[in-house]
Write a structure and sequence with these properties.
By secondary structure, the protein is α+β, with helices and mostly antiparallel strands. The chain contains two helices and ten strands. The chain has a domain of 96 residues: SET domain (Beta-clip-like, Beta Complex), CATH 2.170.270.10. The termini are far apart.
């Protein structure tokens, strides 16, 4: 199997296969230095692009430095990732024809206020690279914040006027 990096309609550069890949075959390993999430946050604080892959519970990340770092996100991916014995493998979840771009669902779970907009163009695109669980969590947080804000406005409106200055 051969992988090449070239321009991608999804995001800048992408990883493509030069030969067909069978479902279930390992496509690549995500390799690079392992650093803490805290180190990554400091190192890449002002960088708009990172190639970080969260490990385990997310306290450690791989700072990508391999062909796999160019594998783009898709909501209708042809691969998935699997962490085995501290290594991250990208494996085909369907048969992939020669010339196709290799993709997996990033399932992002951390990003602050970043919308992590998805550009995959899939019919099933959810509009973001965040995981379905993270999308639900963010919606719940948003609803809670809206409810709290609405309660404060109602309370202010009821008790609302500024107290008048006392007359002497």
């Amino acid at each position: 199997m051969g992988l090449i990096i070239r321009s991608s309609a999804i995001h800048a550069a992408g990883c493509y296969t030069t030969t067909p890949i069978r479902k279930g075959k390992r496509v690549a390993e995500y390799t690079g230095h392992r650093i803490t999430k805290a180190e990554a946050d400091i190192t890449y604080e002002t960088s708009p692009i990172t190639y970080l892959f969260g490990l385990g519970d997310g306290d450690m990340v791989i700072d990508g430095h391999s062909t796999a770092m160019f594998i783009n996100h898709s909501c209708d991916a042809n691969c998935e990732t699997c962490e085995e014995d501290g290594r991250v493998w990208i494996t085909a979840i369907k048969n992939i024809p020669a010339g196709a771009e290799i993709t997996y669902d990033y399932c992002l779970y951390d990003g602050g206020d970043d919308k992590a907009t998805c550009n995959c163009g899939a019919k099933s695109c959810r509009g973001t690279m965040y995981s379905k669980e993270e999308i639900r969590r963010r919606k719940a947080v948003g609803k809670k914040a809206l409810a709290t804000s609405t309660k404060k406005k109602r309370a202010k409106g009821k008790s609302g006027e500024k107290p008048k200055a006392a007359r002497a």
